[in-house]
Amino acid sequence: MDILQDMRVFVRVVETGSFTAAANGMDTTPGKTSRAVSDLEAHLRTRLLNRTTRRIAL
Length: 58
Known about the structure:
Layout: H1 3-16, H2 19-25, H3 30-44, E1 50-51, E2 56-57
Antiparallel strand pairs: 1-2
Helix pairs in contact: 1-2, 1-3, 2-3
């Protein structure tokens, strides 16, 4: 688990407002992007993003 990389992914997701757009910009899959944010949340023991099927909010 690379916490620094997970943080970079989190920042990209927030900047783009989408897991898919962040994944495309980082040449990875949306699933790996989502997993990285979930791992970061687990490491920090807090929820960083409120997710719905249509929106992401800090």
